[in-house]
Specification:
The protein is an alpha/beta fold. 39% of the residues lie in helices and 22% in strands.
Length: 273
Amino acid sequence: MEAKYHILIPVDFTKAASSAINYALGMSKEINPEITLLNIINHERDQVLAKQQLESFVADINFGNLVINKRVIVGDVLNDMGKIAEGMNASVILMGTHGEKGLQKVFGSYALRVVEHSKVPLIIVQEETAFKKIEKIVMTIDLERESLQIVKTAASLAKYYNAEIILVGGKHDDSLLKNKVSLNMRVCREYLTNENIKHAIELLDRKNFDMNLIEFCEKESVDMLAATFYQNTFYAFSDKFVQQLIMNKLHIPLMTIDSSATGVYSQLSFLTI
């Protein structure tokens, strides 16, 4: 029996946390998940107050018949979130990021620091993000094999919604680089075909790739972005690229996972190359 989809939502009593909760409620119409609301505190002495704040924060929210857990845990948000999620067998961490004018990059970077310390994938939503039924997921594929890390997570969610995954990469003139992207695309297509998931491929101009990607998403009415996060790269899809996707102007949620969160070979056990 397949485990219930489990969404872990960090709650810091802000508008960003409310946006994440609302997005999870939108998701629940199709997948009927278990939802855990988590507040991480610095000291044990803050337990009672934090529990009261958490109850008050969600008091007016109608969760219907969903399984809702409320947890207060002592720890560090950046370093411990991933460990807590893994210990709770969470399917995904659904995290809101703040949109205060002038501070978007700061909070986007903050979200990525959580990604760096987590083996559990994240879905990051902006304060302005409203849930849309997930019918199209754009997943970026590049030269590095690690860029495929996100495919299994994206595919799992696509199954719930019968969504299409569009594999998007950059156009290369160099034959070696072109072959690398083509090979990664082929591996993804084989996996998605075996999982009976609708998919397509799109190659975009690498100059201003991030802008071209968002324009493509707008044209295609894309509902979710998916990209592997990794820092040590000389190519276009760097940590700055992922940070730009987090704060994209269309407020599309981003699904991401750290490339080094699990061993490449264990995460990509479906690879045949």
